[in-house]
Amino acid sequence: MFVGRTDELNALNSMFKRNRFEMAVIYGRRRIGKTALIDEFVKDKRVLYFTALQRSNIVNLRRFTTVVAGFFNYESLPPFEDWSAALSFVVRQSQDMEDRFVFVFDEFPYAAMMDDNLPSELQIAIDHGFKDSNIMMILSGSNEGFMESEVLGYKSPLYGRRTAQIQLQPLDYRTAAEFLPDAAPEELVNTYAAFGGTPYYLAQLDPQADFESNVLNLCFNQLGLLREEPSMLLREELREPALYYSVLQAIAGGSTTPKIIAEHSGVGEHGIGKYLKTLESLGLVERKVPFGESPEKSRRGLYSIKDPFFAYWYRFVSPALDAIDNKAGERVIRQLAFGDAFSTYVGQQFETLCMQWLVRVNVEGERMPFLATRFGKWWGNDPRKREQTDIDVVLANRQSKEILLGECKWRNTFNETEAVESLLAREGLISGYDTTYFMFFSKVEVSEATRSKYAGKVEFLSVQDLYR
To answer: Which residue numbers delimit the DUF234 domain (predicted)?
Structure first.
């Protein structure tokens, strides 16, 4: 089942309709749906489709020869000696074709890492052949760092050749919900908190099963498909998977600064930066700074696991792997992976959902009182109370001097007046804005009395509203 990616498909189809040479670069981490997107795009088009493997240059060239022979209707071809010969052959053959076709080079980094000359040879083929054709070329890769430096970077031979680039991101919570069309909102939030927006993980869910059954079968079963997924990905992508595993485990356990992460992971403080940067490039970890501060200059940046599935796995599954392997996964779920700890974890992910909802309505323009141009979260000292505090979601427009402050409350019961007054008291903590708006997001509907008391001052939204 192909879900979402409407904007990306529209962009690719627009490129195809131009009937001239185009080169789209599509990249994003493994399991994010690059191949599914490309397959959906080319399903009604002529396509020369090659996927490189993590094999020797000779193996990939032989496989490419076979694919090219089939596409151009040759019974067989002698193996290409190098990529220059291979690409030149495709250029010559395409010159005799009137019909437009798509040339997909999937997992381009695998081939390029085996032959440093490939980017230069492709650049020559583009400049002296492909650019005068009506071929649409797609380069795709999972190694985001490589794609950004060796394909898109200004030092790359391919710099300036691409006509579009798509860094594929996880699906947002609303699109992810399409995998479970009959699930209730609370169930959908729990599912997104555990599996995130990665299409491959969502596709493994049984839409007829409840959340507990899905997470038990996929993660807390010794035969579960996703039981070892994060550690497998690290082994495939990184040279020192054990150290990266330790870093992620430390962050999942609550370490947020480089110094503390280094201490808890066993990685030296002087070397931790390299590991964090690599995990950021893979889209697994992110560094956030308080709203309004420069990411480059702020010293208050905090690290967290960006991908919900990895955050959930390292928080609840990884510490219990021995028990899971000894068939105690069901007991682990009931005693360790649910309850207060899980509710606290979902509350953190609920903030992400609320921000995604705000991003959506900001585009639509109906529910937002102004056009937001800046987004984030704020934390710091409240000088009036002389204590540390935070604001869950912040949206602002510096030009119009308008700001929206939001509280996200994932609890079944709480003191509504106290919670709302606490939100209102945060006005002014972020300076430079003349008009402040407030939104209060909650797991359950607040009472009519609370709505009436703060009518016109605070907009209240429950989890039900986020899925309407």
So the answer is: 313-418
